[in-house]
Amino acid sequence: MNSVLQIVLGLILGGVTSYLIPLSFNFFLAKTTKQKILGTWISSWQIVNEQEDWVIEEIQIKKDFFRGIRFESKNNSKGYNWVGYGKILDKRYIIGEWYSLNSAAYASGVFIYTIAARGDYMTGHEAVPDENGKIYFREFYLGRKEGDLVNAKKWLKEHKE
Predict the structure, then answer these.
(1) pLDDT in tens, 94-132
(2) d(CA 47, CA 49)
(3) How far apart are CA 73 and CA 120, in angstroms?
(4) Which of 142, 138, 139 shows the shortest CA–CA distance to 150?
(5) Which residues pair with 113 in a beta bridge?
(6) pTM of the predicted model, to two decimals?
(7) 75 φ/ψ angles, rounded to the nearest 5 degrees
(8) Left if phi > 0, otherwise alpha if psi is -120 to 50, otherwise beta: which for 12?
């Protein structure tokens, strides 16, 4: 009976350890990059199929131990509330997924952002489904202040091809 208990406890301890070690490694490896991007940002993006109308919102970026980084929209100019979770790769890229927080909304998608060398803006793309399920890719910009959004748009335009 005692050896069975030791085996079971060993399996549980091994499973927990094998989960926590890589998670902790990723958490501490990206810690300095996370410190650069935490806080309040301004973002800008276009609604799918609308060429003229840009959404402006405030994004709050916080640490999330289990999911890496949490993005949450605030004061969205069109009322689109969403939350996203991402992980930092190579200290320069953030990949993740987002979900609408609006009641009865099923919108969700994925994103990849590139962090600028100075950490003052991020730019990237999101995969966004329309009402019929067709996937579109939209440009997404984040900056510490409005001038940073201009730099982000300029950078992405120069590096598209």
Answers:
(1) 999 999 998 777 788 999 999 998 889 999 999 988 878
(2) 6
(3) 18
(4) 142
(5) 94, 124
(6) 0.74
(7) 50, 45
(8) alpha
How big is the chain, counted in residues?
Answer: 161
DSSP H helical segments within the chain, as ranges? 2-29, 31-37, 146-158
Identify the pLDDT of residue 26: 56
Q: Which residues pair with 83 in a beta bridge?
A: 72, 99
How far does the chain reach from its first CA to its final CA, in angstroms? 66
- Can you list the residues of the chain whose pLDDT is less than 70? 1, 20-35, 48-52, 161
Which of 101, 43, 35 minimizes the C-alpha distance to 62? 35
Q: Residue 142 in contact with residue 133, Cβ under 8 Å?
A: no
Estimate to the nearest angstrom the gap between the alpha carbon of 61 and the chain centroid. 9
Q: Report d(CA 16, CA 9) in Å as an integer.
A: 11
pLDDT at 33: 56
d(CA 91, CA 84): 18
Give the span between the Cα atoms of 120 and 109, in whole angstroms. 25
